[in-house]
Amino acid sequence: xxxxxxxxxxxxxxxxxxxxxxxxxxxxxxxxxxxxxxxxxxxxxxxxxxxxxxxxxxxxxxxxxxxxxxxxxxxxxxxxxxxxxxxxxxxxxxxxxxxxxxxxxxxxxxxxxxxxxxxxxxxxxxxxxxxxxxxxxxxxxxxxxxxxxxxxxxxxxxxxxxxxxxxxxxxxxxxxxxxxxxxxxxxxxxxxxxxxxxxxxxxxxxxxxxxxxxxxxxxxxxxxxxxxxxxxxxxxxxxxxxxxxxxxxxxxxxxxxxxxxxxxxxxxxxxxxxxxxxxxxxxxxxxxxxxxxxxxxxxxxxxxxxxxxxxxxxxxxxxxxxxxxxxxxxxxxxxxxxxxxxxxxxxxxxxxxxxxxxxxxxxxxxxxxxxxxxxxxxxxxxxxxxxxxxxxxxxxxxxxxxxxxxxxxxxxxxxxxxxxxxxxxxxxxxxxxxxxxxxxxxxxxxxxxxxxxxxxxxxxxxxxxxxxxxxxxxxxxxxxxxxxxxxxxxxxxxxxxxxxxxxxxxxxxxxxxxxxxxxxxxxxxxxxxxxxxxxxxxxxxxxxxxxxxxxxxxxxxxxxxxxxxxxxxxxxxxxxxxxxxxxxxxxxxxxxxxxxxxxxxxxxxxxxxxxxxxxxxxxxxxxxxxxxxxxxxxxxxxxxxxxxxxxxxxxxxxxxxxxxxxxxxxxxxxxxxxxxxxxxxxxxxxxxxxxxxxxxxxxxxxxxxxxxxxxxxxxxxxxxxxxxxxxxxxxxxxxxxxxxxxxxxxxxxxxxxxxxxxxxxxxxxxxxxxxxxxxxxxx
Length: 779
Description:
CATH architecture of the domain at 312-333 and 342-398 and 589-705: Sandwich
Oligomer: single chain
Distance between the termini: 61 Å
Number of strands: 33
Strand content: 25-35%
CATH superfamily of the domain at 312-333 and 342-398 and 589-705: Gamma-adaptin ear (GAE) domain
Largest sheet: 6 strands, mixed
């Protein structure tokens, strides 16, 4: 049975309820509720936070222990989840045993916040708990039963016998639950009253002779990866299946506990084994893994491999073709790293997204096309034997009052991986900003996804801002991440509310950590490409640290007629949804492609700086079926080419001289002074046939110092990004040179972004020097 989402279902109303479990987002008004066992969640959670006892022996750490009990009966709660936060950052945690006992060690001395959760109980927060040096802190916590009533709990064993039929199914009614629960109020003790269900001495259940801990619990057909201590008063009915499991419950398999799991996304396999008994307190059997937090926890982030563009000989490859866009995610992600005192991986640095983070004062179009094209040539600042060419476009500015109505779908990831201040909480704040900018003619729907997807808010007029904000405010995180299902549903809602000649757009907010259903890059590519022809555009917004999946986020934007930004702060949200709202939401041209032909009279070789993942085969330039980049209203996009002049004598890798071919210049007196010829194709948003613009650039002997400040600043940013990437094409440059050029050309800097870049560049240079002291001396 499909999960039902409802705006009011994401917060249970208790003063203690700051529960981030996605299960709180499930409406309990449905006829059936199912629960999962703690096996999967316990394994995943414990492998991240299992404690290394050997660390406590050095006397520099403390220990936290206690018991989680039910407030009215005083009985221990089975397998509660205890999470430890420092400054709103989750640093460690554990799962309690079957009596609610827990131990967390070692834990550094300090002040922490504890969050205790268990399905069926209100979340409890303990603020500013003090941990001392070489001491044991005891903290017992009681939990109150939630007012939510679970209609039915289903417990299933591993798939055996006939998968198409249920051969043994027992239902325990509310009356029986009340009768059985006199001495012990939890699911496992009650289900043990059913034939075929047994318990260990520790009250751990096992069914029909199956393996211990091999059960699954379902809520409304959805496997729940959380703790399974439920008070009897919260349950109306329990169904126990002990044989012939239906196919839809085929994932309830005991073999999970013997499979290796991965730690922090690494390729190292961690064998599973039962933990030892500690001071008489029995823990849930789970994998044991040492958790030593690295200095910077970005180990599970994913970036697509990026191979820097090489020089190409004009005699061999006279044409350069690529798709242009104005994404800036890479730069914003870089800012996040530097502000945390580190540098991003090389593959995380896309030079074009550094350049395109900044506004450039290119003129507005005047010839009927939606763009102006601006080109310039000068000496290359980091290699004066080379030339540098800048190609910039500026999209037509549009007044918000004259823009067409918008049909927006907010697609928000509320899975467990989004549970932090820099993820879901920041998502909410950013969407509040956008909602405030909506007009009565606009409309918004909200779709969320975790283990499943659902509509939180149907399409609602923009003047109903209180209703929209209330729906956003009630979102909470928890569960796995079925991103593909969310995308399918969001596009379905957008199509149902499609506005002809309007702005139809899905805005996806996620960390990209899809792990259920459609999740591979190939599957996501197929999915998003199938939606591209519906006239619905896509904005992808990346959030968070630690497990951020940049590769998937960029793929979705590239292939989904969209744009991509990384949101590292509230200020970036302001930029996206307030200061640059029209460029973010309103596409003025799609499938924008460049094709440049270089004149061998002036150019021996060329290299496109950046855009490595935007290169296109030359024939695709004239093929209107091939996807390319999108440009928003008022957007400026810039590309740089580094050129080796003709006759320079500089050698690059090349093929042998051809035996039968001869390359000569075509005699044309009108083009002899041109260094290149630019062709640009684009489509208007609602059209399928491209339009062509052709603009040549005349050769210039201009010095770098005499070219425009916009050119010089863009070159400084590119130079810096190449240094951070340790480009092999910039060995003679230095951080100080790029910083000095940027400082001399920051101009009025109305939004402060150029000044911020200079400060970040200085900080990054210092970090680089600490990481590479020998190399840094040369830079």
